[in-house]
Amino acid sequence: MTEAAITEHRFDAALQALSGYDDVELLSKAMGEIFPDRISVVSAFGAESAVVLDMVARIDRKIPILFVDTGKHFKETLEYRDMLIDRLRLEDVRSIGPAQDKIAGDQTGLLHQTNTDACCEIRKVIPLEEALSEFDCWITGRKRFQGGSRSTLATAEADGPTRLKLNPLANWSPARIDAYFDNYGLPRHPLWFKGYASIGCGPCTGLPTEAGDSRSGRWSGLGKTECGIHRYGSQAA
Ligand code: SF4
């Protein structure tokens, strides 16, 4: 069997082992049994990020958490990140960002005004891809209710040929998210109190423009709905 075939077989087996699980059970199985030391969380420390962060912290506070620091975040997000690190006693939060040579093409820092795809590529996609190279699996906070390409999200999916991606909250509703914040007394992002339902980089985040569509304030009016870090996707089982 070739190395590629072995890898494919290994990830098929892991996907099968994780199917049928979600939220805490999915995380416990992946973090404790299948990918110990080879799994990370990717978090934007946004409006609902505290739920997944709290769940993983209850399992293992040492899990690596990757925060893509694009240099364009709201100061409130950076403050919220630091507060959650402290509150949840997260032990390995890694702020990763674009290398200097990569942002040479955005010397004014205004590339987002003319080419959001190129800006996301150098500030998010490339740094994250490099950081994920040491992991076999990563965890996101995406939900189906967020719509668009997320509406058919599976709880476990292939992320290209060599990695898996877990979406432990894929099946959750907004009410369940709110209940988790209340039940565990988790702090909210400061901008959530001002109506921001989905929070990314400052220049590309506004208040929701459509009722019931939490992500409608992201890249509003540009026809863009994702930054590009979720290139691969799967359909819900
Ligand atoms: S969200 Fe906006 S500012 Fe952030 S990386 Fe993408 S285009 Fe640039």
UniProtKB/TrEMBL annotation:
Cofactors (names): [4Fe-4S] cluster
Domain Phosphoadenosine phosphosulphate reductase as annotated: residue spans: 39-206
Chain positions recorded as [4Fe-4S] cluster binding sites: C119, C120, C201, C204
Cross-referenced SUPFAM superfamilies: Adenine nucleotide alpha hydrolases-like (SSF52402)
Compartments where found: Cytoplasm
Domain of life of the source: Bacteria
BP terms from Gene Ontology: hydrogen sulfide biosynthetic process; sulfate assimilation, phosphoadenylyl sulfate reduction by phosphoadenylyl-sulfate reductase (thioredoxin)
Binding note for cofactor: Binds 1 [4Fe-4S] cluster per subunit.
Keyword Methyltransferase: no
GO cellular component: cytoplasm
Catalysed reactions listed for this entry: [thioredoxin]-disulfide + sulfite + AMP + 2 H(+) = adenosine 5'-phosphosulfate + [thioredoxin]-dithiol
UniProtKB keywords: Cytoplasm, Iron, Iron-sulfur, Metal-binding, Oxidoreductase
Single GO MF descriptor: adenylyl-sulfate reductase (thioredoxin) activity
InterPro entries: PAPS/APS_Rdtase, PAPS_reduct_dom, Rossmann-like_a/b/a_fold
Active site location: C227
This enzyme's EC code(s): 1.8.4.10
Pathway: Sulfur metabolism; hydrogen sulfide biosynthesis; sulfite from sulfate
Keyword Transferase applies: no
Homology family: Belongs to the PAPS reductase family. CysH subfamily.
Function noted in UniProt: Catalyzes the formation of sulfite from adenosine 5'-phosphosulfate (APS) using thioredoxin as an electron donor.
Stated name of the protein: Adenosine 5'-phosphosulfate reductase
Name of the gene encoding the protein in the UniProt record: cysH
